[in-house]
What does this fold into?
Amino acid sequence: MKQIVRTLTGAIVLIASSLLTLTACDTQKDGAPGPDKGGKSGYLVGKVTDPQGNPLVGATIYTDNTVFKGRGAEVTTASDGTYQVQIPKDLGQWVSKGYIIKQYNDRVYKIVLDPENPDSFTAEEKPVRNFQWKLTGHVPDLSLDLYYGGTAELFRDPNVEGLQDSENIEFTFTPVGPLIDGSTGKTLKLQSNKLNRNFLKDIPIGRYKISAVHKPTGEPLLVADAWGDDVNYGSSVTLDFIGTESYSRSNTMGVAFKKR
It folds into this structure.
């Protein structure tokens, strides 16, 4: 009889241990379900990763109601990149968005995160929304010409003639030090087009040494910081993108050019 009791007790302990193990696998330490195991009713959960796919701590994720704007909440990701946001019930559809604040070369940048799934959801759907920090790429809303990379605005010197065909100018961007995510950048050779001849878009945010050449003639051009206190032209110029200190031109730089 004692042997039977010991056997039953051992089986109960084994089952209880298995249940705890399964629960632990599907639940984070703070009680949120793991983003890869399904969601939790009444909550939005997910994970945020950096450009290399590693967990991203301190990213901000927030919710917004599709009708009652500003009715959501925001949280920051934990050390493992995960998060959970409680969703009010009976308020219809919600969307989630995210961003990071990153200090780089004595500037501060606000960078929008790329959603794995941009679709709206309700509190009852147990939504899971993962995000990634991307250096380049088109923001999902195709009605807006927005990118995760930075933008270089191009300015032909108004005091000189020629170079009306700015789409034929090739700009060389050579990284100076690592990019904003710490990775090693590549030298880029970029040209605008006739529709957007004053812009070079979707450039990985970093510090760059910039030079330019007029392709039809092969003539090297002079370049300068278009937004500097003094526009001093040279064969090259080293520039950073503007950060959060400018609301209207954040993640943008200005490159002036003219003939030698």
Notes: The first strand starts at residue 43 and ends at 49. Residues 2-26 form the longest helix (25 residues). Residues 1-36 have pLDDT under 50 and may be disordered. The chain is about 10% helix and 35% strand.
